[in-house]
Amino acid sequence: MAFSRTGSEAKSKGRVLATRVVSAVVLAILVIGAVVVGPPATDLLVAVVAVVLAWEWCRMCAGEGEGATVPRGVMIAALLAAVAGMAFDRPVIGLLAMAAGAAIVAVVSRGTARVWLAAGTFYLGLPCVAFMWLRADSETGLATVLWLLGLVWASDIGGYVFGRLIRGPRLAPVLSPNKTWAGFFGAVLCAGLVGVAASGPVAVDSPIRLAAASAALGATAQVGDLAESWVKRHFGVKDAGALIPGHGGLLDRVDALLVVVMVTALIGAVGGGSILAWL
Questions:
Q1: What's the pLDDT tens digit per position in 159-210?
Q2: In which domain, by residue range, is 61 found?
Q3: Is the pLDDT of residue 3 over 70?
Q4: Which residues does 210 contact at the CB level (< 8 Å), separation at least 6?
Q5: Nearest Cα to 27, choosing from 54, 45, 50, 47?
Q6: Are 130 and 165 found together in one domain?
Q7: Per the domain annotation, does 119 fall within a domain?
């Protein structure tokens, strides 16, 4: 019986892993295809993502009752307005609409959820706008976005594999009980290796700086992952949704990317150009 149970458990884990891999590959193909094509494919991709993220965030913070219907609708409209503003080269109007939407969400929401829903409008909306802004750069936009996607995915894979194989001390048990320091360093290492690999096709002055920047953003990705884990733990939710087989919700898959995109866009805005232009 023990051998039979062990065999069944192994098969079950194998099926789960296979499902995760297939889902990840399909999503990667869709995302990379839209990014390579560029606008309007990228704009449409971000719009769809924004709607799904808003839906999952509202479900996570306010549940699925009638009280969440109006805030959810307002948040979705606010994020779509921000995306449309970027798509039609009216970013200021889009950002103002997003801010107005956040204010309305705070008014129409109930209880403590109003703070989370209003904050979520910015937490989700600003990365969507930043992603479009980065891709819109005619010189380095495509390379920048593909590089960010690669290092974030590598960070996720490295964190998962190293954490599972090595285990050891937990990274932040209060925020996420399953993450370990081994997984963190594995995530940083794999992100740095993406920088090394990208130094060939991407024209940069210093491959070492690109690898270092990739590793630093890999660490940043883990912060984004921990942030979402903290929110889920606060609301007692295991997954943000169930859209992606083997992975949970879309927010569970892009939590790291949200923060990495924002940090990269901020660095580019302050530095007066794409981060790849001065590495």
A1: 999 999 998 999 998 888 888 999 999 999 999 999 999 988 887 778 899 9
A2: 38-136
A3: no
A4: 195, 196, 198, 199, 202, 204, 276, 279
A5: 45
A6: no
A7: yes
In SS3 terms, the chain reads as CHHHHHHHHHHHHHHHHHHHHHHHHHHHHHHHHHHHHCCCHHHHHHHHHHHHHHHHHHHHHHCCCHHHHHHHHHHHHHHHHHHHHHHCCCHHHHHHHHHHHHHHHHHHCCCCHHHHHHHHHHHHHHHHHHHHHHHCCCCCHHHHHHHHHHHHHHHHHHHHHHHHHHCCCEEECCCEEEEEHHHHHHHHHHHHHHHHHHCCCCCCCCHHHHHHHHHHHHHHHHHHHHHHHHHHHHHCCCCCCCCECCCECHHHHHHHHHHHHHHHHHHHHHHCCCHHHHC
Residue whose structure tokens are 């924002």: 262
Examine the pLDDT at 71 and tell me if it is beyond 70: yes
Residues 84 and 154 in one domain: no
CA dist list (Å): 91 to 95, 130, 260: 6, 10, 20
Q: Under 8 Å CB-to-CB from 187, ≥6 apart: which residues?
A: 154, 155, 156, 158, 159, 162, 218, 219, 221, 222
Looking at the structure, tell me whether residues 132 and 172 fall in a common domain.
Answer: no
Q: List C-alpha distances in Å: 193 to 139, 203, 273.
A: 24, 16, 24
Residue 32: inside a domain = no
Same structural domain, 144 and 130: no
Same domain, 59 and 152: no
Domain count, the chain: 2
